[in-house]
Amino acid sequence: MAADTYDVGIVIPGTTASAPLMKPNMQVSSTDLFAAQGFHVLIGRDILSHCTLHYNGSMQLVTLAF
């Protein structure tokens, strides 16, 4: 399947105690596979490997820290 590919950068802002998480110049591919489900972006393990992700399903709450 052919897909458009783009060079992008991502910045997750930090707090006053931590610097932002920055990943410049990443190649990403577009897809419409998840648009019907309301997803615009999927964050991959290459980004999540720098973070702590907590998912509380009963409260439908997601917390991302780094």
Which terms summarize this structure?
66 residues; flat; mainly beta; two-stranded antiparallel sheet; 1 helix; 4 strands
Give the helices and strands, then pairings:
Layout (H helix, E strand, L loop, with lengths): L4 E8 L8 E9 L15 H4 L3 E5 L4 E5 L1
Molecular structure report:
The chain has one domain (5-65). It has one helix at residues 45-48; strands at residues 5-12, 21-29, 52-56, 61-65. It is mainly beta and 66 residues long. Helix content is 6%, strand content 41%. The chain has a two-stranded antiparallel sheet. Strands 3-4 form a two-stranded antiparallel ribbon.
Q: Numbering strands along the chain, what is their spatial order in the largest sheet?
A: 1-2
Supply the number of helical segments.
1
N-end to C-end Cα span: 34 Å
Q: Any idea what the shape is?
A: flat
What's a quick, concise take on this entry?
With 66 residues, the protein is mainly beta.
